[in-house]
Specification:
Arc Repressor Mutant, subunit A, alpha/beta, three-stranded antiparallel beta sheet, Rossmann fold, single chain, 11 helices
Length: 415
């Protein structure tokens, strides 16, 4: 018996357990014991959003949304922020020379990603992009694109991320621009088989040891998105990979197609919901306005939503305000006509709760349709969205089951 095992056996004996029961499995388990004296490094985060730490090292993070909801656009912002120091905004100028100063928008600020002065006066709807990198040194970024064509990947790298960090990288661009993209490794593996994608992904993370990994999308590393065993195995491998190499792996996954169902697709979606550190939901609103919201976290809640739009001339993101009135959608996610709502929404949802502070999403809808005079599902969804905007109710997702609940704002969560 090794000295390590001997002391473990002694500890078990002192606790009243015979040493004969000290099996190899118990020995392995004791290696994972946590006490107040355990030497464990503190959790570190890569970014802040609205001043709140997010995207931790050694963890998985999920970015979800319907098709074409702005997921890759948000990730472009994230990757650009990982490469450009947000504290250097005021020092950049439009010389484009060899002294490391770069400016492409004519006013001394980075294009849209951190201080989006795209209107020529230093203000875009009154605010800066509230996303910043925490550490001074740029991050090493790995972008693993399984979904788009090679042309699309390059276009995003050069004409979106490249411009946000200081410009594309053609010959003659300043050395600072080239350096900004130098440690951003973009790989397009759309044409590879699923098992090749998986093998190459595991190996390249071990080889490059990036700080930030964008896995867009995780379902393409699986043969079957609805295979429970495969989904569990994949999630465990990703968690081990993130922990071993101290990187944050951002897993991109589509939500279910139904407009009323915002859970992530398949068994892999269920596994990720249970295991990730936090979840961000992307949504496309009217007038090319995009919304990003943290919907789940294990530590720090971000109580605000990020809204941005795409500038028509530059095709770059511009911070915007909350839309004055969100146009409602029907159950299939389609835009419906905007009507002025004259119903007392607090009274409506309080009545539908039938004396409770919370109900399951589907149950509440059924009661509202049958007993509260709501004429159809389309009308109900418009009431639901407006009630959320007025902070009368909130829609929550159970962190373990993924089931949706509706809670009156003065109520408590059911979990």
């Amino acid at each position: 018996m090794s000295e390590h095992d001997f002391f473990m056996a002694e500890e078990l004996a002192a606790a009243g357990q015979p040493s004969a029961d000290f099996t190899p499995a118990v020995a392995k388990l004791f290696e994972s014991r946590i006490t107040e004296k355990s030497d464990i490094s503190q959790m570190t985060f890569l970014f802040r959003l609205f001043g709140v730490a997010c995207f931790p090292r050694g963890e998985l993070v999920a970015v979800a949304g319907k098709a074409k909801s702005g997921k890759t656009f948000f990730l472009s912002l994230l990757m650009a922020a990982g490469r450009v120091n947000p504290n250097l905004n005021a020092n950049l100028n439009l010389n484009g020379n060899d002294n490391g100063n770069v400016n492409l928008n004519g006013n001394g600020n980075l294009n849209a990603n951190l201080n989006p002065n795209l209107n020529g006066n230093g203000n875009v709807n009154g605010g800066q992009m509230p996303l910043e990198r925490i550490r001074e040194e740029p991050l090493r970024v790995l972008w693993y694109d399984t979904e788009q064509s090679q042309q699309s990947t390059q276009d995003i790298l050069v004409n979106r991320i490249g411009k946000m960090v200081g410009g594309a990288v053609p010959e003659g661009t300043s050395s600072a621009c080239q350096e900004a993209l130098e440690n951003l490794y973009a790989f397009n593996v759309r044409m590879a088989s699923w098992d090749e994608r998986l093998r190459m992904f595991m190996d390249v993370v071990a080889y490059l040891k990036p700080d930030l990994v964008v896995l867009d999308g995780v379902r393409d590393l699986l043969s079957d998105i609805n295979d429970g065993r495969e989904a569990q195995s994949m999630t465990e491998r990703l968690m081990q990979l993130a922990q071993q190499h101290k990187c944050c792996i951002v897993c991109v996954l589509h939500q279910n197609k139904s407009g009323a169902d915002n859970t992530m697709r398949g068994w892999i979606g269920t596994e990720l919901t249970n295991k990730v550190f936090e979840v961000y939901n992307c949504e496309k609103l009217r007038d090319r306005t995009f919304k990003v919201e943290q919907t789940m976290t294990r530590k720090y809640d971000i109580g605000r939503q990020l809204y941005y739009r795409v500038d028509e001339d530059t095709q770059l993101p511009v911070v915007s305000e909350h839309p004055a009135c969100n146009q409602p959608r029907d159950a299939q996610g389609r835009w419906v006509c905007q009507n002025t709502i004259t119903v007392d929404l607090r009274k409506l949802f309080t009545t539908a709760m039938e004396g409770s502070n919370r109900k399951a999403f589907g149950e509440l809808m059924a009661i509202a349709l049958k007993k509260c005079g709501v004429v159809d599902a389309r009308t109900y969804y418009s009431y639901l969205e407006e009630a959320q905007a007025q902070d009368i109710i909130r829609v929550e997702v159970h962190p373990a089951t993924g089931k949706k609940w509706v809670t009156l704002t003065d109520g408590q969560l059911p979990f």
